[in-house]
Write a structure and sequence with these properties.
alpha/beta, 2 domains, 7-stranded parallel β-sheet
Length: 298
């Protein structure tokens, strides 16, 4: 029955569609974190197709995937539904993205820049035009994104809504961002809304590798004190590093610094000698030893 429903949706002509025109299918990835209802996913797909977005990623959908209710609610946006990619975690879904924004209706503590949908769409458009992979993250229907998930994004997007009634359903939020995305590419006389940096931000996979290395180095030195504050401290330094938009070269420099500092360990504390005394730098240490010996002979 699900297959028959899909075939009907493919052949049915929806009001406002024109199959003689080329289908726009580009732009940022839309990521849904743990969506609950298949109908909501389908309406998200329809909103995306309305405004030229096509790549939908879903993190741990409650009712599994594929979902016939999503196909029905998509109202013809089957190219979006058929291209859905599933992920177990938000981190996994972001590894190939260089810039991501997280949508939220609640004020968050941290170091993130808060953008409106217009400015966020311009940022996404500029980076997309420069060849970067970008993403817009949407949370659960009931309570949105948690702080750790927001911390994985570069910036926050919030909508100017009635403060006494600020709740948007999932498809509405996607529709607003999709609309602003398309509108950002229709401004006359502007190929790019701003001049971005000359370097290309590193993929999230490299940034997350830096996080892991830094966390391990800090853990071995007892940085996380008291232990129960570790989640808060980890979230803070991740927020600082995601805000900067480091290039691959900059991340390599930072990891090199951490590796150098990592020569000092609980078994070889800072007070026990200089980095030149490290046996892993025998050649340097040997040269220094010979020089000192020559001075003593003099």
């Amino acid at each position: 029955m699900a297959g028959a429903g899909t075939r009907n949706l493919k052949t049915k002509t929806m009001a406002g569609t024109d199959k003689q025109r080329p289908m726009i299918a580009e732009g940022p990835v839309v990521i849904l974190v743990e969506p609950q209802l298949g109908e909501n996913i389908g309406m998200v797909a329809r909103a995306m197709a309305n405004f030229g977005l096509a790549e939908l990623r879903i993190v741990a959908p409650r009712d599994g995937w594929p979902n016939p209710k999503a196909e029905a609610a998509a109202s013809g946006a089957i190219h979006v539904i058929e291209g859905v990619r599933l992920f177990d975690t938000l981190t996994d879904s972001l590894t190939d993205c260089a810039y991501a924004v997280a949508t939220t209706a609640r004020q968050r503590e941290g170091f993130k820049t808060v953008l409106g949908p217009v400015e966020a769409a311009r940022n996404l458009r500029g980076r997309h035009a420069g060849g970067m992979k970008t993403a817009i993250i949407f949370g659960r229907e009931r309570f949105g994104l948690n702080n750790e998930e927001v911390g994985l994004a570069d910036d926050i997007v919030t909508f100017p809504v009635n403060p006494a009634f600020a709740s948007l359903n999932l498809a509405q939020a996607v529709l607003l961002m999709s609309y602003e995305w398309m509108k950002s590419g229709m401004e006359e006389g502007e190929a790019l809304p701003f001049a971005g940096p000359e370097f290309v931000p590193a993929p999230k996979e490299q940034l997350y590798g830096l996080f892991d290395q830094l966390e391990q180095a800090l853990e071995s030195r007892g940085y996380f004190r008291p232990p129960e504050r570790k989640p808060v401290l980890v979230e803070s330094f991740r927020s600082v590093f995601t805000r900067a938009g480091y290039s691959s070269e900059e991340i390599r420099v930072l990891r090199g610094i951490i590796s150098s500092l990592d020569r000092f360990s609980p078994s070889n504390p800072r007070g026990s000698g200089s980095p030149g005394d490290d046996p892993r730098r025998a050649s340097t240490g040997g040269k220094r030893s010979k020089k000192r010996a020559g001075q003593e002979n003099d």
